[in-house]
Amino acid sequence: QLQLVESGGGLVQPGGSLRLSCAASGFTLDYYPIGWFRQAPGKEREGVSCISAGGGSTNYADSVKGRFTISRDNAAKTVYLQMNNLKPEDTAVYFCAADLYLTSVQDMCLMDFMVEYWGQGTQVTVSS
Q1: Sign of the CA dihedral 5, 34, 97, 95?
Q2: 8 A C-beta contact, residue 40 and residue 102
Q3: DSSP readout, 47-79?
Q4: In the chain, at which residue ranges do the beta strands (DSSP E only) sit?
Q5: Is the pLDDT at 1 greater than 90, yes or no?
Q6: Parallel, antiparallel, or unpaired for β 78-83 and 68-73?
Q7: pLDDT of residue 46
Q8: How far is CA 92 from CA 27, 48, 77, 124, in A?
Q9: What does the pLDDT average to over 60-80?
């Protein structure tokens, strides 16, 4: 059974950092592009960052470019999202997701409705 479990969320002050982890089980992570998405209260879910199966291609939302970094360790079956210089507008529930067929990282980040497998989410709150 394919499972994705996020961790690493929490409360942080503006300007602070967090690293989210997405642990995969029940499938071979190596073959799957992975995306991080977020949903703030009252807003639509949006793609934050996506990474190709091999890690060679990445995509970032304009709002996080230069602050967030996505990476993956297929041997450890984990994908990470390093978030630096966090802002209050980054407050949201963050989800990781996987889909075998969305091989374009740009498409994956834009077409969240097409993504098949989702984790349960982890809350990130940026507040002083």
Answers
A1: positive
A2: no
A3: EEEEE-TTSS-EEE-TTTTTTEEEEEETTTTEE
A4: 3-7, 10-12, 18-25, 34-39, 46-51, 58-60, 68-73, 78-83, 92-98, 117-118, 122-126
A5: no
A6: antiparallel
A7: 97
A8: 27, 11, 24, 6
A9: 97
Residue 95 · residue 30 · CB < 8 Å: no
User: What is the chain's mean pLDDT, rounded?
Assistant: 96
CB atoms within 10 A of CB 66: 9
37 Cα distance to chain centroid: 5
The residue behind tokens 């690293």 is: 19
pLDDT for residue 90: 98
Bridge pairing between strands 10-12 and 122-126:
parallel
